Amino acid sequence: MAAFKQFYNRFRSFTLIELLVVIAIIALLIALLMPTLQSARSMGRRSVCASNLHTLGVTMQGYCSAFNDWIPGSPNTSGNGACPGGTSIQLYPGTYVWDNTTDAWPAVHIFDWANPLLLMMGGSIPKSILDRYDQSKKNVFVCPENSWIAKVNHPSRIPIETIVSSYATSKYFTYVPRDQQTGTSPGTLFWSHDFVPNDFMPQLDQIENSAVKVFLADSCRIDRGNPRQISNREYGYSTEGAWLNVKDVENDNMSLSYRFAFGRERSYRHGGGLNMLFFDGHVNYQPEGSSEDNNGYGSGSRQAKFWFPSGTDTRNLPSADSFSNRDVIVP
């Protein structure tokens, strides 16, 4: 019995070396599993982001159905004195009647697509511009990978710090052709340009190949001159699109989005790729790619077809000098 106790006491606990070996094995297993766990979390956040965009896509289609197919988030539609398409249809009847005062705007900005969609979801639209801007950064309007806080660069209207917009509308779908311009003031079709195909209007039924045309996408737009300030040019609600390959040059008049490395790091937040909501309602993930691939038609998220109406002649774009092949007619 004494011999057994002596044997038991000798082997009932680990030696220091054995403990170190066990700790090393555990540390190795954690190191091996950590990337997998991080990847799983990232994929989960990407899925939530895609679900947000899908919800916004369904709501966008409901808005278009209610307002003669006019697309929300355009100076020619929901941001234009609350008269979609320059018509007499009132988006906020009895609440925001256009009277040429700051507080009469139905949206925070002429490119604000979020508050019109919030209205379609049954939400209330505060009269305060500050409150309207703040609510457009909550719930389905926020990508879980986006937590960048910045100060709005317009203290006279919105003197707050808030999360930078997670999603932006594709700006080139908001124009009308020159010959369709009906005026220069709110309530008219005034946002026009030469690049717009003659048969295009910012209406859902006018979007050819809607399965490859982007309505919203991951984006991040702040002041080029001050990364701690959100640009008051469109307040982050719109972007020129990820097709653009512009070098990171010093220019205080530009805004960070897909254009510059600093902004791209925060736009391509899902493993170097974007979630994109298309006009037909589906959501697709695309890696960054290059605008110069495929003879200027681009690859990945930088495919020109994603960001322009079909028939767009890239030689007429406002930033045509940045396009790798100016002869591209967008399919």
How many separate structural domains?
A: 1
Strand element count? 10
Overall average pLDDT = 80
Uncertain runs are 91-104
Indicate the structural class: alpha+beta
Q: Assign a percent range to the helix content.
A: 10-25%
Strand content: 5-15%
Strand order of the largest sheet: 7-3-4-9-10
**For the CA atoms, what is the radius of gyration?**
25 Å
Q: What separation lies between the terminal Cα atoms?
A: 90 Å
Major pleated sheet: 5 strands, mixed
Principal-axis shape equals globular
DSSP summary: helix tally: 5
Strand and helix order: HHHHEEEEEEEEHEE
Structure report:
There is one protein chain. This protein is α+β, with helices and mostly antiparallel strands and 331 residues long. It has one domain. Helices cover 25% and strands 11% of the residues. The chain contains five helices and ten strands, in the order ααααββββββββαββ. It has helices at residues 2-11, 16-66, 114-120, 129-135, 261-267, and strands at residues 149-152, 161-163, 167-170, 214-218, 222-223, 229-230, 238-239, 255-256, 273-278, 283-287. It has a five-stranded mixed sheet with strand order 7-3-4-9-10, covered by helices on one side. α2 packs across α3 (114-120). The longest helix is centred in the first third of the chain and has 51 residues, at 16-66. It is globular. The relative contact order is 0.12. Mean pLDDT is 80; it is low at 91-104.
